Every structure is written in structure tokens, then in C-alpha cells.
């Protein structure tokens, strides 16, 4: 299926957030996730199902003022 | 002590972490400033990227409190979602709320700001709204539950200092129990001292330190100015007068009223 990951189309076989992050080599990194603008807590990354066309935001800390 | 909701901080200076010439200079500047709170932003991470991790470990080394922002958000909805991401990422209910109306001036969108603050306060956030010097907006922010309000001195990164001193004074008078922090537009330590002399509880700055020729030395200079400004406020400044008033005693001046 196709997901929109950080604004870009991406073909993936991952059906869970945890699997997607591992496919993108994010394992163990400091990120927060929103799917279709809803924040998904880390504890639910293995449960929440991803569907074709879902928009996934993968967010991390940056310099800021 | 600087009070942010139910927590107190020794330093009245909050420092941003962006625009420094290097990560090392950023860390040294934070240490030199004495700031107990630093601001950070949230951005998309690239696939396999470790950018966020690298930055985060620098911040953790400093042992300071993190204040995430919603910088770049143009709508109340973007800002509330970003705040939720921040709470998830940093494990803190504290959020510097920015809703930007205009790219040229980075003028806050005041209606969007009140809308987002209302939602976030109900959701348990400790909101620190970045706003203008407008009193009615500040009063609305307080009404919806904000216990900290952060008016600008002048536009972000402009280094112009306090451009509407009387409005900032009025805010201080009308909101005596609210923590007021001047956020944005400060360019020199004297600007920070002025804010503290007006009775503001603190200042939040970034560019003035990060873009100085020597950011670490400038961070130290701002620390001194904030301490001086606060000490002056607590000491009670005399009021300004229109005319001169001699400081040396008049009585006994040599040759005064001399008989000719």
C-alpha cells in the first residue's frame, strides 16, 4: 500500500507504525508520531493499524527559539 | 524566582537553541547564560535520520528544562497537534504556543492563539503563549487559563528591543499576578534589563545571543543584564521628572546669595 510519510508518497508493506519505523530504520530513535493528524503514543505503535493513503508524520526534536 | 505554573526557576532568562555557529557554542552559551529553560522545536525527521537524536543528546547533556515550541504553525489546529506531539516527545505539558499570521513580521495570529490556548488548557497543557503587547488579547489568554503570557518586544529576530514601552507597562499593571515574559525582538542586554526593570518576570531570547560575534560572551552579558534589571526593579526605581533636580545640597553653596 501507499502511505504519505512526512509529506512524501511511500510504497510499504508495513501495516503497523512499529513496522514502518523499523523499515525506515528509525528503531530506537527519539521520535513522535501522528497518523492523519492524530498523535499515536509510543505504547500503541504496535497496535494501531495503518491503511492505504494514511498520512504519517515522524517528528523529532530540533533547534528552536 | 521565575514561576511557570506550579514550577519555579532560579534564572529569569530563557534561551533558544537555534542559529548558533556550532553545537558546542550553543551548549557553552546556554551554560554562560545561566538559563534553566531552553526552547526547542519539532520537525520532520528524515528516513533513518539521527538529526533529532544528535540534537537531543546535546540538550540532555545540559541538564536544563526543555520548553518545546509550535514555531512555524499557521493555524490553531496545527499548533494544537504540534503541542500534542511535543508532549509525547518530551513528556512535558509545557508548550510555547506560537500561531503565526504573517511571514514577514512573524506577527502572532491573535484569534488563532486564543483558540489554540483554549483547547490546550482544557487538555491539561501549561501554555506559554507568544503574543503581541495587545492588552485585550492578553486578558483573553488569562481568561481561558493561561498563567503565563509572553508579549513580544518587537518582531522575532529584529533586535529592535522594546518598541511599545507604555503598552508593556500597562500589561504589567493590569496583570499583576500573571507571569509575564518578554519574548522576541530583544537585541541587546540593555533591552533585557529594561524589560526586567518594568517588572517583567523574565525574558526569552535567541538570535541576540546566537548571532553575536561571540555568543558565549553575549550570553554572559545577558545574564548580567537580567540580574541587574531585576535587582533594579526590586530596589524600586525613582520616577522620571520633566525638570532638573539638583543632587548636591543647595544650602551652604559657596558664594550663594553673596552680598555684593
Account of the protein in words:
The complex is a heterodimer of chains A (65) and B (260). With 65 residues, chain A is mostly beta strands. Helices cover 11% and strands 37% of the residues of chain A. Chain A has a five-stranded mixed β-sheet, with no helix packed on it. In chain A, strand 3 (32-35) and strand 4 (38-40) form a beta hairpin. The longest helix of chain A has 7 residues, at 17-23. Chain A starts with a strand and ends with a strand. Chain B has 260 residues and is of the alpha/beta class. Helix content of chain B is 40%, strand content 19%. Chain B has an eight-stranded parallel β-sheet. In chain B, strands 1-2 form a two-stranded antiparallel sheet. In chain B, strands 7-8 form a two-stranded antiparallel ribbon. In chain B, strand 9, helix 5 (135-143) and strand 10 form a beta-alpha-beta unit. The longest helix of chain B is centred in the last third of the chain and has 21 residues, at 215-235. Chain B starts with a strand and ends in a 25-residue tail after the last helix. The model of chain B has no long low-confidence stretch (mean pLDDT 95). The chains are: A mainly beta (65), B alpha/beta (260). Strand 5 of chain A pairs antiparallel with strand 4 of chain B, so a sheet runs across the interface.
Topology:
The complex is a heterodimer of chains A (65) and B (260).
Chain A: E1 2-5, E2 8-11, H1 17-23, E3 32-35, E4 38-40, E5 55-63
Parallel strand pairs in A: 1-5
Antiparallel strand pairs in A: 1-2, 3-4, 3-5
Chain B: E1 2-4, E2 7-9, E3 13-16, H1 23-33, E4 37-44, H2 51-62, E5 65-68, H3 76-90, E6 94-97, E7 100-102, E8 107-108, H4 110-122, E9 126-131, H5 135-143, E10 148-151, H6 165-174, E11 179-183, H7 189-197, E12 202-205, H8 207-210, H9 215-235
Helix pairs in contact in B: 1-2, 1-9, 3-4, 7-9
Q: Spans of chain B of 5+ residues with little confidence (pLDDT < 50)?
A: none
**Count of DSSP strands of chain B:** 12
| Rg of chain B (CA only) | 21 Å
Shape of chain A: globular
